[in-house]
Specification:
alpha/beta, Rossmann fold, seven-stranded parallel sheet, two-stranded antiparallel sheet, 17% strand, globular
């Protein structure tokens, strides 16, 4: 199994920072051949740092032609695709449904949902063509797929939708050896959650603000790797990993 793992090909979106960077780093360390995708080329180049198993493809995944180029590039370079970590996303504006502007809503939907679906679409096309090898898609959801934070309508809506996308991919991929799972991560140490742990902290459902606990991003990456390394005969459908003591259970 070790030789098989060490020859796997993965695409990681949003690889330039945060969870995507941590996952890509772990994959490269484990012998995966990794396509590093993100809008900004400089942090991708810094992460690759000349690694022979890293392929940098600067990509705006909200643009259909660039998504096609990304997955064609992976296949052309290494001949196949075994894992997609569908990770890129944005938190969106702080707003309730009556406050959010249509343009802001559209921007969050475009990246968090439509782009994720189009990356899964492109990945499935490659994976179907290599049947019976198939492949695996791991969607980065959020605790917002289970319970929203206040004033997070656009983000929460997209993450609930990602759960539906995950289940649909898992069902539709069965005949082709393609599996799909979702990881929902709460308060790992990244730039996106800095606002929850500094200053007044995160807005709570009762109107208070509090600084919330976090956990190391590498622990989230380790959980993603567990999903990615699961043999084809099994699938991890869902993982929820949070900072110990954060207000998730009982949130609302």
């Amino acid at each position: 199994m070790t030789d098989e793992l060490n020859s796997r090909v993965a695409v990681v979106t949003g690889a330039g920072s945060g969870i995507g960077k941590a996952v890509a780093t772990r994959m490269l360390g484990a012998g995966y051949r990794v396509v590093l995708a993100g809008r900004r080329e400089e942090p991708l180049r810094a992460l690759a740092n000349g690694h022979p198993n890293a392929l940098v493809l600067s990509t705006d995944i909200t643009i259909a032609e660039q998504v096609t180029r990304l997955f064609t590039g992976a296949r052309d370079r290494w001949g196949r695709l075994d894992v997609l970590f569908n990770n890129a996303g944005v938190p969106g504006p702080t707003a309730s449904v009556d406050e959010i502007e249509p343009e802001a809503w559209d921007a969050v939907i475009a990246l968090n949902l439509t782009a994720a679906a189009m990356c899964a679409r492109a990945a499935m096309k490659v994976m179907k063509a290599q049947n019976p090898r198939g492949g695996r898609i791991i969607n980065n959801g959020s605790l917002a797929a289970h319970a929203p934070r206040p004033q997070s309508v656009a983000y929460t809506t997209t993450k609930h939708a990602i759960s539906g996308l995950t289940k649909s991919i898992e069902l539709d991929g069965r005949a082709y050896g393609i599996s799909c799972g979702q990881i929902d991560i709460g308060n790992t140490e990244t730039e996106l959650v800095d606002r929850f742990v500094t200053g007044p902290g995160a807005l709570q459902p009762d109107g208070r603000r509090m600084q919330e606990p976090t956990f190391p991003v590498d622990e989230a990456a380790r959980a993603v790797m567990f999903m990615a390394d699961t043999p084809p005969s099994a699938n991890v459908n869902s993982v929820v990993i949070t900072a110990a003591g954060m207000p998730f259970i009982g949130r609302g």
